[in-house]
Write a structure and sequence with these properties.
About 35% of the residues lie in helices and about 20% in strands. The protein contains 9 helices and 9 strands. The chain has a 7-stranded mixed beta sheet, sandwiched between helices. A two-stranded antiparallel ribbon has the order 2-3. Strand 4, helix 3 and strand 5 form a beta-alpha-beta unit. The longest helix has 14 residues. It is globular.
Length: about 220
Amino acid sequence: MRDSEKALLAKSNVAIIILAAGASTRMGKPKQLLPYQGSSLLKHTIESAIASVCKLVIVVLGANAQQIRSEVTQPSVQVIENPQWNLGMSASIRSGILSLESVDAAVIAVCDQPFLSSEIINLLVEAYYSTGKPIIASQYAETLGVPALFSQIFFSELAALGENVGAKHLINRHLNEVFSVPFPLGAVDIDTPKDYEQLSSPSDSLTRVKNEGDRIL
């Protein structure tokens, strides 16, 4: 860990909530368990979170929870089961947020962005403490989205999100309170078998996006 990251770790009081409760209907099987870089998509996301400056890592499970729980082997990770996972991402966000105590902020992340890294998470946390903005969002594909960090002043709004509404809704509602961090590879998410196939055999367009992301980092 670099000196700057050590300093950030010393003052950081930020949790990260990994949303992994979806049924993966378009994939046809739990995408959380898809093999990726010697482990799985979910385990890769968890390992990135643990390697970051976040003090607490929470994983929210729902559909196929019993099967997926075996991927969460790290004792430091807190697992929350969302019995209302079928109501959409907002229900999982609520489950994660309501489990938090005494943190400054929380990063909301998903497990189907394969290029999420501890470096990206740390950039969000660093921007939060350096800019004073209460929302730090990732910027990709001409939009703002997750992973995104929210100050605790927005926890009540996050917990009150309506059905089938995600964190992006809150970002768009408070754009004047948002600072963005470039994450071009955030545009890559795995929803369908074709997405996963392209991840295994990168297309020219994906290669261009990866190269852009490497230049930024």
